[in-house]
């Protein structure tokens, strides 16, 4: 459940600011945040997010309100090369950057670990460390036990 926007006329640095804001949010929270943010990147992200929501509803038959933004990726695209005239007929180069925006929606992860399994794992790790401590050699030839002085 994803959507892409290629070659958006927005600098990747500016797009990454918005990506950090919405990454990991639920879909309704992200839509509300983008709607209230007055930036060009918010308008572009809102369009991509609405497209991903439509893909989830139409193609995958999922309720988009129950999903979260799993990945929000902003990559640098090509750059328009422009120039500003300078003295003596020279040109100062200007690069206008483009970016690619990709949003993937997914289900929220639930980190519920059964109590019995976690207790068994803790017991196992304690038991293995006890067995390692008892198996240490104490008086072998290669071990250093004390430093002798002359």
Give a summary of the structure in a few sentences:
With 150 residues, this protein is an alpha+beta fold.
Looking at the structure, the CATH topology of one domain is: Ribosomal Protein L22, Chain A
What is the CATH architecture annotation of one domain?
Answer: Alpha-Beta Complex
- Helix segment count? 4
CATH class of one domain: Alpha Beta
Q: Hey, roughly how much beta strand do the residues contain?
A: 25-35%
Residue runs with pLDDT of under 50 for 5 or more positions: none
Compute the number of strand runs. Answer: 3
For the biggest β-sheet, the strand order reads: 1-3-2
- How helical, in percent, are the residues? 40-55%
The Cα radius of gyration reads 28 Å
Secondary-structure element order, N to C:
EHHHEEH
Question: What is the CATH superfamily label of one domain?
Answer: Ribosomal protein L22/L17
The secondary-structure class comes to alpha+beta
Largest sheet: 3 strands, antiparallel
Mean pLDDT: 85
> In whole angstroms, how far apart are the ends?
75 Å
Shape descriptor: elongated
- Oligomeric state of the chains present here: single chain
């Amino acid at each position: 459940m994803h959507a892409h926007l290629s070659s958006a006329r927005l600098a990747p640095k500016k797009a990454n600011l918005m990506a950090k804001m919405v990454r990991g949010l639920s879909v309704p929270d992200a839509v509300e945040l983008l709607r209230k943010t007055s930036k060009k990147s918010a308008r572009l992200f809102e369009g991509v997010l609405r497209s991903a929501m439509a893909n989830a509803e139409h193609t995958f038959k999922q309720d988009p309100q129950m999903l979260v933004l799993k990945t929000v990726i902003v990559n640098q695209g090509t750059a328009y090369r422009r120039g500003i005239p300078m003295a003596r007929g020279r040109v100062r180069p200007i690069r206008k950057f483009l970016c690619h925006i990709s949003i993937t929606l997914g289900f929220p992860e639930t980190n519920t670990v059964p109590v019995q399994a976690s207790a068994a794992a803790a017991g196992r790790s304690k038991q293995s460390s006890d067995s390692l401590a008892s198996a240490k050699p104490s008086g072998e030839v290669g071990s250093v036990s004390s430093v002798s002085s002359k």
